[in-house]
């Protein structure tokens, strides 16, 4: 029997990212786990939600650019740190070695195996939070995390997963099945195509 938990969001674990922007002339970073894909067409968009009090929001509004980097498990301490301290009173600009991409106000972290540069498309306003929707302008990936076909190998990235119920970072497990494949037998069977 299931218990009614009320209006609780159980959509965890979620991918942990580091969002970068420029505030007051210097790079600033924030750990963000509420990130979502918006579409798979072109152009591609992603979104993330943060509290309006976060210092990074100011830089995103001002420059309309930001980065979303995917840290590996080896960056768990630094990732947690940038989520614990505010750029309002802590200079996080020297924490990471950066590299340049296309957008001048989207700082990219060299140690993150995957980073995306985004241009702000729109902001969805809620009472306490804002959801930033960005168009992905460029994606940068380390050669070591790419498969032979040029796609990102998530097992090589070793991303951090965030779980709200345990307030813990988790690692990625083994693959379970191939998407858009494992259910084909059931589809044929239910259509009587056996």
| CATH architecture heading | Roll
> Low-confidence parts, pLDDT < 50 over ≥5 residues?
none
Q: What is the highest CATH level, the class?
A: Mainly Beta
For CATH, the homologous superfamily is named as Electron Transport, Fmn-binding Protein, Chain A
Q: Tally the helices.
A: 4
CA-CA gap between termini:
35 Å
| Number of domain modules | 1
- Major sheet size, sense and barrel closure: 7 strands, antiparallel
Which strand order does the major sheet show? 3-2-6-9-10-5-4
Radius of gyration: 19 Å
Give the structural class: alpha+beta
Shape by Cα distribution: globular
At CATH level 3, the topology is Pnp Oxidase, Chain A
Q: Proportion of β residues?
A: 25-35%
- Name the average pLDDT: 96
Brief account:
The protein has 4 helices and 12 strands; from the N terminus they run E-E-E-E-E-H-E-H-E-E-E-E-H-E-E-H.
Walk me through what this model shows:
This protein is of the alpha+beta class and 194 residues long. It has one domain: Pnp Oxidase, Chain A (Roll). The protein is built from 4 helices and 12 strands; from the N terminus they run βββββαβαββββαββα. The protein has helices at residues 55-63, 76-84, 154-157, 184-190, and strands at residues 14-15, 17-23, 26-32, 35-37, 45-51, 65-70, 98-99, 108-109, 114-125, 129-141, 161-163, 168-170. It has a 7-stranded antiparallel β-sheet with strand order 3-2-6-9-10-5-4. The chain has a 3-stranded antiparallel β-sheet with strand order 1-11-12, with no helix packed on it. A two-stranded antiparallel ribbon has the order 7-8. A hairpin with a 4-residue loop joins β11 and β12 (168-170). The mean pLDDT is 96.
């Amino acid at each position: 029997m299931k218990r009614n938990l009320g209006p609780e969001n159980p959509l965890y674990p979620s991918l942990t990212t580091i969002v970068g922007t420029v505030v007051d002339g210097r790079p600033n970073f924030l750990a963000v786990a509420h990130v979502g894909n918006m579409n798979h067409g072109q152009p591609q968009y992603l979104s993330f939600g943060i509290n309006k009090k976060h210092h990074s929001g100011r830089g995103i509004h001002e420059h309309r650019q930001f980065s979303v980097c995917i840290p590996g498990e080896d960056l768990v301490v630094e990732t947690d740190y940038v989520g614990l301290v505010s750029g309002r009173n802590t200079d996080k600009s020297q924490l990471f070695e950066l590299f340049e991409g296309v957008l001048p106000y989207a700082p990219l972290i060299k140690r993150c195996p995957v980073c995306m540069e985004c241009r702000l498309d729109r902001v969805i306003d809620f009472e306490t939070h804002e959801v930033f929707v960005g168009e992905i302008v460029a994606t940068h990936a380390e050669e070591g995390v790419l498969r032979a076909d040029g796609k990102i190998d998530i097992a090589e990235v070793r991303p951090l997963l965030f779980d709200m119920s345990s307030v813990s970072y988790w690692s990625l497990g083994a693959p379970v099945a191939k998407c858009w494949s494992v259910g084909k037998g059931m589809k044929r069977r239910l259509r009587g195509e056996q």
